[in-house]
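Listing S7. Sequence submitted for prediction.
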Amino acid sequence: MKGGLRQCIKAGSLDRRPGWLLKFGYDAELVETLKARVPHTRREWREETKEWWVNEEYNGVLMELFGNFEALAFLQCTMFSEGDLTGGVK
């Protein structure tokens, strides 16, 4: 199963862990697969913005689930320096 992301932004969790903010069209099977493959301690659903945050440790899972994850993540990382993505924090 490979879905398509509408948004993939390098961003931190609510408690500042590194990862990705993802938006994709609703697909019940895809949501259940994401929940099964990424522990609840490594993902967040943000109801107000209708997006998921997923810890960067699960990049491999995201590549398997979303056909365009690698392209979006790679392109974003080439647009910014490491300092831009971390807010200057290393």
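Caption to Listing S7: primary sequence and predicted structure tokens for the chain studied. Residues 5-84 form one domain. Residues 84-90 have pLDDT under 50 and may be disordered.
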